[in-house]
Amino acid sequence: MESGQIHMIDVTQKRETQRQAVAKGKIQMKPATLELIRKGELEKGDVLAVAKTAGIMAAKETHRLIPLCHPLQLTHITVEFCLPEKGNYVEITASTKGIGKTGFEMEALVAVSISALTIYDMCKAVDRSMTIGEIHLIRKSGGKSGLYLAGE
Length: 152
Fold this sequence. Notes:
The chain has 152 residues and is an alpha+beta fold. The protein has four helices and five strands. It has a single domain, classed as 2-Layer Sandwich (Alpha-Beta Plaits).
């Protein structure tokens, strides 16, 4: 293959296994913005319900968003939020699961990213200073490489 050429990895010969991935991220905001989310008082509606739906939908479309990702048959997706009492952020955790020939990491990372962007969109009228970050894979299992745990 010539240098600079792109290609999708051929997974034809790989064995299908049960796979799972978990990713996390944060969106930081003003404390007043977090309080509006908690109280459900933002003009656009229930921020976390919309962000959860967006994250789930995005995970299912990862292969359309990331050019060299394989389309995968997801069997389960969760998106959860933590709004700490002492903090100015929403922590987002996404979990993806399925049986396939390649991992589900990108789907979990996309779910977190799109959930965070949706929170930003729904809250931008009151807080344009929000920042999105710390998006990372925390756990992956299945396939030839087996278990991955962040920090190990």
